[in-house]
Amino acid sequence: xxxxxxxxxxxxxxxxxxxxxxxxxxxxxxxxxxxxxxxxxxxxxxxxxxxxxxxxxxxxxxxxxxxxxxxxxxxxxxxxxxxxxxxxxxxxxxxxxxxxxxxxxxxxxxxxxxxxxxxxxxxxxxxxxxxxxxxxxxxxxxxxxxxxxxxxxxxxxxxxxxxxxxxxxxxxxxxxxxxxxxxxxxxxxxxxxxxxxxxxxxxxxxxxxxxxxxxxxxxxxxxxxxxxxxxxxxxxxxxxxxxxxxxxxxxxxxxxxxxxxxxx
Length: 264
Fold this sequence. Notes:
It contains six helices and 15 strands. The chain has two domains: about 1-100, Elongation Factor Tu (Ef-tu), domain 3, CATH 2.40.30.10; about 110-225, Nucleotide-binding domain of ferredoxin-NADP reductase (FNR) module (Rossmann fold). Strand 4 (about 50-60) and strand 5 form a beta hairpin. The chain has helices at about 80-85, 120-130, 155-160, 180-190, 200-215, 250-255; strands spanning about 1-15, 20-25, 35-40, 50-60, 65-75, 90-100, 110-115, 140-145, 165-170, 175, 195-200, 220-225, 240, 245-250, 255-260. By secondary structure, it is of the alpha/beta class. Helices cover about 20% and strands about 35% of the residues.
């Protein structure tokens, strides 16, 4: 974990209220893994007071050295509105990489990625990592869901990797008009993958966990939650689990959990 001042390389709108930002973070990210996150502070006026957590979207290397990290985020409040106004050349404070990561089984013959809205952010990093490690991504399928077409991000990246991509929207403006868990369940009835990886809103994750249990498939999920510190000091990101004292903290024990660990 390193705290550093990072130059903003770009900060571009990629959809309604969605932005893609690149940060020059040469230190500490060569060993970052999919699922980990960073805590961001914008400016020196301490407004907003608390840092904001963001999943690492991509780690980009040049000539063998990490040149930048990329984040994908949605404007939802004061902190992300301020971040969206930051231009190239501005420095922001970055703390990371934090948290644990997705785990890759020795034999990952097939896998499903399920993402709801901005939950797609760590899934691209996971696909990048699998590709770099030599896995055949054509054996993987991606299930992207959102309220409308504007909430479906990164489709072309997955298609470029040769993956089967299934789209769903609540309003029917793209793909099938249903919840993303509907085609996922149909796929599970037809073929059980080695692993399901999922990230998105909690109701979606609850359903994915239920499907994994029903079809006896291993599943790892990345939890989206607000954090005040990202280091276990504030104890504000507790999540209920089935073992031990009944609770774990997303920032230290997560954000990635085995589905059977969680009581949600």
